[in-house]
Amino acid sequence: xxxxxxxxxxxxxxxxxxxxxxxxxxxxxxxxxxxxxxxxxxxxxxxxxxxxxxxxxxxxxxxxxxxxxxxxxxxxxxxxxxxxxxxxxxxxxxxxxxxxxxxxxxxxxxxxxxxxxxxxxxxxxxxxxxxxxxxxxxxxxxxxxxxxxxxxxxxxxxxxxxxxxxxxxxxxxxxxxxxxxxxxxxxxxxxxxxxxxxxxxxxxxxxxxxxxxxxxxxxxxxxxxxxxxxxxxxxxxxxxxxxxxxxxx
Length: 249
Prior knowledge:
By secondary structure, the protein is mainly β. It is built from one helix and twelve strands, in the order αββββββββββββ.
């Protein structure tokens, strides 16, 4: 927070020093880097029924799969002042990150007579390294500095793989099977705040924070050997803070 306050102070001070320059708005391109948190609230439920014994074992849980990683973003857009101080703009963006894979495990044990069933589920989740979309800006501006709200849309993909292992004492040896690999393209709404200052008519700096809530979705899978059902409920979102260099054409 202290670093953020100091940065804002530097930008505002610079805006006063350069206030005699002409307005530096119009077509722009910016490139920036920062940190991004990718989170998926996952609720897997799996039930297995074994044909020979008729035993049923179930496992369910809720987990937060979260990864903090470096990220970069590139934007191309247009901004302007309406009147003296009403700032507005819009831009296309491409966001890229390392797309770290996160793993979640859960297990269950069920006893029926002399048989003990052990069930384990490994869930691997990964956001695509690319996301893209459009932003709209609206806020307060001077000749060289603008502070504004951000509202936009983003699209990305999420890959999930599910692995199940089970053992029934006296009936089955250790066995593994993969329920499957799933891919989902998700759209989301993103909102945040931004601060931009142009040191000259062409060059400036842009700082922003954005939260993106992607659509919730579910997946249902059934298999026959053993008889099983798998349900997964996802609620993915991201948060990112970045500092960019701006070039205005």
